[in-house]
Write a structure and sequence with these properties.
Bound molecules: zinc ion
Distance between the termini: 34 Å
Structural class: alpha+beta
Number of strands: 6
Strand content: 25-35%
Shape: elongated
Oligomer: single chain
Length: about 130
């Protein structure tokens, strides 16, 4: 369900960009999805193909994953984690309840479990290319 709302938002923002840059058609759209977002790229692609307007007739959609960045609240250290480097159970727990990350992950600099999750949960439009 989430994917459909997201597809709508992506198409709406890409359309805005196209209007601003006076593009007649959009050839490529790059979307960045945070690793902690519960999004199935295949469903997102399907939703995009169903909802797209004539502006997106020839558009290639690139859906890329973004690594999760953590920032320590104690020492200010920031580091990236990849879900691939965690064991499966941990990665799944974090995927469903990102707050759980605090139980498993500690700051590599000072050992504090008190950190902020910077961009693991966002979805953003990285690039829109088109023809004028
Ligand atoms: Zn720290």
């Amino acid at each position: 369900m989430h994917e459909w709302a997201l597809a709508e938002a992506i198409l709406a923002s890409a359309t805005e960009v196209a209007e601003k840059e006076k593009l007649k058609e959009i050839t490529e759209v790059t979307v960045r999805v945070g690793e902690l977002q519960q999004i199935a790229p295949s469903i997102l692609r399907f939703a995009l193909s169903q909802l797209k307007t004539s502006l997106f007739e020839k558009t290639k959609f690139h859906i890329l994953k973004a690594k999760t960045t953590l920032t320590c609240r104690v020492c200010g250290n920031s580091w990236k984690i990849s879900m691939k480097n965690l064991d499966k159970t941990t990665a799944e727990a974090i995927h469903f309840v990102p707050e759980v990350a605090h139980t498993y992950i500690k700051c590599p600099n000072c050992g504090s479990p008190d950190f902020e999750i910077e961009n693991g949960r966002g979805v953003w439009l990285e690039q829109v290319n088109g023809v004028k």
